[in-house]
Amino acid sequence: MSLLTSASTKHRPARHRRHSDQADESVVGPTSTAGKVLGGYLPMILATLVVVLPLLWMVLGSFKQAGEVVSRTIAWLPHHPSWEAYVRASHQVNFPRLFLNSVLVTVVGAGIKLVLAVTSAYALVFVRFPLKRVIFVAMLAALMVPPQVSLLPNYVLIAGMGGVNTYWGIILPGLGTAFGTFLLRQHFLALPREVLEAAEVDGAGHMSRLLRMVVPISTPAIATVALVTIVDEWNSYIWPLVITNDDSRMTLPVGLTLLKNIEGDPSSYPVLMAGAVLVIVPVLVVFLFLQRYIVAGLTQGAVK
């Protein structure tokens, strides 16, 4: 009798646990699934569609005929895909020259910006000098000033120095940016100071600590700044448009203005879409190379 009683008391909690687990699954399961869909997947899908659909529509439009782009009935896919728009765009604009100009301006400008951002952020965090906080506050104030405000003063200065229709005239005014310095400074503040102090005790100088310790540890953050800087340099339009009036010095975004868009002429729209595709593709290629570093930077510290 005691054995039956003990067996029943042993099995009773297990049944209660099973029933309670099933009840919890019936209550929590659908709710958590709905929460994931409504709070995670649905906004992500909508945001992706907002970004991707216009780009996809532009790519498809570059392969369409003019009558398919501007029509009362929407042509979702090109009925007779052709490279005619790209051929016409290449006849109207010297894309190889524009591409070379954009690559030169982007590589030199983004490279100098990245070096200045890394060294300035390192100095603001690990180097002791007077008025460091004042300088940082001044950099934050510079971030709040729209670039259009400095357009006229920069043009007067660069034109007075003979920088019109020159590569250095396009690059030089854009070097004074504080975005990368601010972002990297916030990242450097989270680095372990004990390691750097130990390296300082061993006799390592600032340059050695920067190149051998800070930069390798901060590769994801530096790659993020590099991508943002490259995209900004590549897509820069207003300043190169103002400082250049010669086709041989124009960048790709400015060169698209040479594709004459006559209002009411539908034949120009596929050509403009083809030119825009040629501008966007290099940026996407750069993103594919840097995206793993960016993902590593975003997930850094998420798992403890």
Automatic annotation (TrEMBL):
Domain ABC transmembrane type-1: 99-290
Transmembrane segments: 41-60, 103-127, 134-155, 167-184, 210-231, 269-290
Region (Disordered) location: 1-30
Amino acid composition bias (Basic residues), ranges on this chain: 9-19
GO cellular component: plasma membrane
Subcellular location: Cell membrane
The keyword Lipoprotein appears for this protein: no
Highest taxon of the lineage: Bacteria
GO biological process per UniProt: transmembrane transport
SUPFAM superfamilies linked to this entry: MetI-like
Main location: membrane
Keywords assigned: Cell membrane, Membrane, Transmembrane, Transmembrane helix, Transport
Pfam families the record matches: BPD_transp_1
Gene3D superfamilies linked: MetI-like
Membrane association type: Multi-pass membrane protein
UniProt record similarity statement: Belongs to the binding-protein-dependent transport system permease family.
This protein's name: sn-glycerol 3-phosphate transport system permease protein
Organism expressing this protein natively: Propionibacterium cyclohexanicum
